[in-house]
Design brief:
493 residues; alpha+beta; 5-stranded mixed beta sheet; 5-stranded antiparallel beta sheet; membrane; transmembrane; potassium
């Protein structure tokens, strides 16, 4: 136990589902009545078909499958009964032929040639049929050439016997080779667990294979059975919902050599999105697990099933590790296959956790306002580009660099974003950020003022950084000739 605590940590508490293991038992909810299950723990579906009416004739149309699906006691009874009736019927036919020909009265006459030698009563006729049917051939009873009806009956007996043997022996062989017993060596954990894994709330259960032979192309699926009512008022008593156990990522394809933990991540697409530890005490649902694969030794498809009700799902638990590295091999300890231990897990649903995280966040980006402000800035700069394009070529060269409006756009968008983010900060942070002396805020404010009325201000009023970008060291309009100044004022007015 000390080694276990060094490995898992002191805050974890080991909980074993077996009675022999030490430690306190897992927490149990209030006792309920007996839960009606749709699928039992051994995989048997708890469904009975009734009031079939005239549909029972469908079973006779597929007689072979009907016989295979019957229980063993009924299979053995039908097997023995069929052979007994067939043997008695055919023995009676041989006795009738001997009786009609008068062979029974002349059985000890050496000068008379009967249909079947040494058949003088019903037991002898029955023994003759068994000898011919089983191809024993003692040589004491045999058919003579003076009996054509006996030859025809012998041919009919051979054909009928072959059909009965093929049907019944084939049925018994399929019954014995069914892969249902292979499912007995596929294990499922007694309980499912819900805890955090990789930062996400996850539903987990364990699957194991007791045999050394593998399950080829093993695939696992999960169904959630839960009653619900549609918006139209229709009540669905056993609505089946799919639980994603890795279908999108391929994790549902198992390499079942050692016990595996199957995970279902609870997110917004999961049916357990609203499930919390408190709501589990009032919910009623059943998780049906279906494991399919091909038996490696026989090549036949095998299916194993089990189910977990809401009472068998442990909140805040994790499965005990069962694999250890020995000298040259990995050892699986199946005594801890069903054991779990407690781990810190929030008792809230994923939906509640997302709402709490959203409410606790102090910064909410005003996406709509920022988009409007950026659109107005872009429209203003587009208008500035159009006006600059109408200037003469000499004036366009004098006005400076081509990336001047782009730099103004970056400065204006940065300033607007800072202004909106400042409004979303708490009051203390706003006071700290409003301390005078911030040259970047002054520069952004002047750039924003210029963009609001770009053509009414001269380039000389820009800050020194922007003056350098514009390409002039002093007042740009003072360096222009009078004609160009007049043309410039006429165009802008």
């Amino acid at each position: 136990m000390s080694a276990l605590r060094r490995k898992l940590g002191d805050e974890y508490q080991v909980v074993s589902t077996s009675a022999s293991a030490g430690g306190p038992p897992p927490p149990r909810s209030a006792p309920r009545g007996k839960r009606q299950r749709f699928v039992d723990k051994n995989g048997r579906c708890n469904v009975q078909h009734g009031n079939l009416g005239g549909e029972t004739s469908r079973y006779l149309s597929d007689l072979f499958t009907t016989l295979v699906d019957l229980k063993w006691r009924w299979n053995l009874f039908i097997f023995i009964l069929t052979y007994t009736v067939a043997w008695l019927f055919m023995a009676s036919m041989w006795w009738v032929i001997a009786y009609m020909r008068g062979d029974l009265n002349k059985a000890h006459d050496d000068s008379y040639t009967p249909c079947v030698a040494n058949v003088y009563n019903f037991p002898s006729a029955f023994l003759f049929f068994i000898e011919t049917e089983a191809t024993i051939g003692y040589g004491y009873r045999y058919i003579t050439d003076k009996c054509p009806e006996g030859i025809i009956l012998f041919l009919f007996q051979s054909i009928l016997g072959s059909i009965v043997d093929a049907f019944l022996i084939g049925c018994m062989f399929i019954k014995m080779s069914q892969p249902k017993k292979r499912a007995e060596t596929l294990m499922f954990s007694e309980h499912a667990a819900i805890s955090m894994r990789d930062g996400k709330l996850t539903l987990m259960f364990r699957v194991g294979n007791l045999r050394n032979s593998h399950m080829v192309s093993a695939q696992i699926r999960c169904k959630l059975l839960k009653s619900r009512q549609t918006p139209e008022g229709e009540f669905l008593p056993l609505d089946q919902l799919e639980l994603d156990v890795g279908f999108s990522t391929g994790a549902d394809q198992l390499f079942l050599v050692s016990p595996l933990t199957i995970c279902h991540v609870i997110d917004s697409k999961s049916p357990f999105y609203d499930l919390s530890q408190r709501s589990m005490q009032t919910e009623q649902f059943e998780i049906v697990v279906i494991l399919e694969g091909i038996v490696e030794t026989t090549g036949m498809t095998c299916q194993a099933r089990t189910s977990y009700t809401e009472d068998e799902v442990l909140w805040g638990h994790r499965f005990f590790p069962v694999i250890s590295l020995e000298e040259g091999f990995f050892k699986v300890d199946y005594s801890q296959f069903h054991a779990t231990f407690e781990v810190p897990t929030p008792p809230y649903s994923v939906k509640e956790q997302e709402e709490m995280l959203l409410m606790s966040s102090p910064l909410i980006p005003p996406a709509v306002s920022n988009s409007k402000e950026r659109n107005s800035s872009v429209e203003c700069l587009d208008g500035l580009d159009e006006v600059a394009a109408k200037l003469p070529s000499k004036l366009q060269k004098i006005t400076g660099r081509d990336d001047f409006p782009k730099k103004l756009l970056r400065m204006s968008s940065t300033t607007s974003e800072k202004a909106y983010s400042m409004g979303d900060l708490p009051m203390k942070l706003q006071r700290i950020s409003s301390v005078p002396g911030n040259s970047e805020e002054k520069l952004g404010a002047k750039a924003t003022k210029m963009l609001s009325d770009p053509m009414s201000q001269s380039v000389a009023e820009l800050p020194p950084k922007l003056q350098k970008l514009s390409g002039g060291g002093g007042r740009m309009e003072g360096n222009l000739p009078p004609k160009l100044r007049k043309m410039n004022s006429d165009r802008f007015t």
